[in-house]
Amino acid sequence: MNSKITLIIGGCRSGKSSQAIYLANQILGDKRLFVATSVPTDKEMDDRVEKHQKERGSDWITAEVPIEISSKIRELSIDSNLSTAIVDCLTLWVSNLMFNNFDDDNILSMTQDLQNALINSSVPIFLVSNEVGCGIVPENALARRFRDMAGMVNQKIAQIADKVIYMVAGIPMIIKDSHKDLM
Asked: Which of 120, 127, 159, 177 has a CA 20 to 30 Å removed from the CA of 44?
């Protein structure tokens, strides 16, 4: 049985996005959606976005959705031709929410809404996120809040995910697989 919700988590440049694209490309179908939460604010980010779009190829549709990813996921079920989607990335989504003055309760409420949208989606969805809790405790309140909220969002999505893959140095390690037979 294929996983419907897959969370791919790891550090920066660990291969998360490449793994998501690889797995999504294994799903039969011609129409794939890449939900980008990034809001490029400088030339370097513009160049990264362009590089990633080229890596995905022309059979991917890109939707720039910095805040309302739950609404976009709900739209996926309406499009019967869509074979899969990637949301990249939840960490930037949390950053966008904080930048737009969402408080912690609002972020957790939006995360609950995202959980519901994912559970009810009719297409397999791969979500990419950074593991930000392995480093030192940040010295300022804003950075600690971001780390805490990103960690909470990751936990909530991991709870409902069928599969969770942890990426280290380009190597995927399955840390949760709801469909694997346990002995």
From this structure: 127
Closest-CA residue to 20 (of 85, 65, 79)? 85
CATH of the domain at 81: 3.40.50.300
Residue 131: which H helix or E strand, with range?
none
Q: C-alpha distances in angstroms, 51 versus 5, 33, 40, 112, 150?
A: 26, 17, 13, 32, 25
Number of Cβ within a 10 Å radius of residue 105: 8
Residue with tokens 């969002």: 153
| Cβ atoms of residues 76 and 85 within 8 Å | yes
For the chain (183 residues), the mean pLDDT of every run of 10, in chain order, is 85 93 90 91 86 82 94 84 93 97 98 96 95 89 96 97 97 90 46
pTM: 0.92
Query: Are the CB atoms for 108 and 94 separated by under 8 Å?
Result: no
182 in a structural domain: no
